[in-house]
Design a protein that fits this description.
Blueprint: H1 15-24, H2 26-31, E1 34-39, E2 42-47, E3 54-56, E4 61-62, H3 64-82, E5 88-98, E6 108-117, E7 121-130, E8 138-147
Antiparallel strand pairs: 1-2, 2-6, 3-4, 5-8, 6-7, 7-8
Length: about 160
Amino acid sequence: MSLIPSHERPDGDPLRPIQRFCEVVTYCATLGIYAYGVDGPKVCLALPYCEDILGDADRQWINTGAITTLIDSACGSAILHALPQYEAIATLDLRVDYLRPAPAGGEMRCWAWCHRITSNVAFAQSEVYVEGIDEPVATSSASFMRLKPQKREAG
């Protein structure tokens, strides 16, 4: 995967590397997750509504697995956006607090931001909203391992 950190792009388009992430990560592409926006250090990914993501068709609620996928992808994108250069990362821990059921019909948007980077781990938080609803349906805290390239010994 070839991503260029948002702040190093010669064209200055911070959405392009985030959208590329959404296109090359299979589960993002399958669900139709796309880069919705960037506001300073915050990244927003969106999940368009479709009946395939219903978890409870009778009550018209979105499946929490689809929401978790959106959150994990947005937090990872926020960390990649914050790093000084691209590097591979992997989710270590993802805590999601579901505050209320997510009703069907509206696009879901997850705003995520990286709030701390150490030499080995990066931390992110997020809030998920459904289009047309002002209160978040979920919040999260996540940590990601930084997978720096290993130096090879000569010989």
